[in-house]
């Protein structure tokens, strides 16, 4: 579902309409709608990778408080575990096949196995959101999020899933705890030059 497609325009209009007329006065309902919409948007591309997105979010939710509450070596273990899992997953999907093919070419391996690894939608954006979240907690710039719904929304927020920006947790998470934040967020998004160009194509 490309941002410049009619399908996205209809999807976005439907989500915004439901939000504005049904959910904007109920915070929990608002965030349920946004998360469900983000997962539908993601699943529209390839539902098989939803498990990766949800799993990454769950691990982030678990490790955040561990990084904040522990000290010394234990803190480093939790932090490094989160960073290795996030960046390692990105590295695998983005570069592992390339390195395998390059290795085979370097040593002239004729019967090489070519890996056709599909790159999950938006994996770079949500990976760096997770990395930013962990580092902000480690540097005492952000407290770990106790609201799973807000954190899962922060990671999967569909308007910035495929073209950014990489929102900082300290900026987006507080907004996800306010009723009616979506109107302001969408206005800011549409003011972005790239989004303006998308609208021209509609």
Question: What's this model, at a glance?
Answer:
By secondary structure, this protein is an all-alpha fold. Helix content is 72%, strand content 0%.
Describe this structure in words.
It is built from 9 helices and no strands. The protein has 202 residues and is mostly helical. α2 runs parallel beside α6 (148-156) and α3 runs antiparallel to α4. The longest helix is centred in the middle third of the chain and has 35 residues, at 72-106. It starts with 5 loop residues before the first helix and ends with a helix. 25% of the residues are buried.
Q: Total number of β-strand segments?
A: 0
Sheet with most strands: none
| Mean pLDDT value | 79
Parts with pLDDT < 50 across at least 5 consecutive residues? 186-202
Helix content: over 70%
General shape: flat
SSE run: HHHHHHHHH
Produce the secondary structure layout.
Blueprint: H1 6-23, H2 27-46, H3 50-69, H4 72-106, H5 123-138, H6 148-156, H7 169-175, H8 181-191, H9 193-201
Helix pairs in contact: 1-2, 2-6, 3-4, 3-5, 3-6, 4-5
């Amino acid at each position: 579902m490309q941002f410049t497609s009619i399908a996205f325009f209809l999807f976005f209009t439907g989500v915004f309409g439901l939000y504005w007329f049904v959910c904007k006065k109920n915070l929990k309902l608002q965030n349920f709608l946004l998360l469900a919409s983000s997962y539908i948007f993601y699943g529209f591309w390839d539902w098989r990778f939803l498990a990766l997105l949800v799993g990454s979010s769950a691990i982030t939710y678990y490790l955040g408080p561990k990084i904040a509450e522990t000290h010394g070596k234990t803190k480093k273990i939790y932090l490094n575990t989160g960073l290795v899992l996030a960046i390692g997953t990105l590295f695998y999907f983005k570069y592992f096949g390339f390195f395998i093919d390059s290795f085979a070419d370097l040593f002239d391996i004729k019967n090489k196995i070519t890996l056709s690894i599909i790159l999950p939608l938006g994996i770079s954006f949500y990976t760096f959101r997770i990395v930013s979240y962990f580092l902000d907690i480690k540097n005492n710039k952000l407290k770990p999020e106790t609201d799973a719904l807000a954190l899962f929304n922060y990671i999967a927020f569909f308007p910035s899933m495929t073209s950014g920006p990489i929102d900082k947790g300290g900026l987006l998470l507080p907004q996800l705890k306010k009723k009616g934040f979506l109107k302001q967020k969408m206005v800011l998004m549409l003011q972005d030059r790239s989004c303006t160009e998308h609208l021209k194509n509609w």
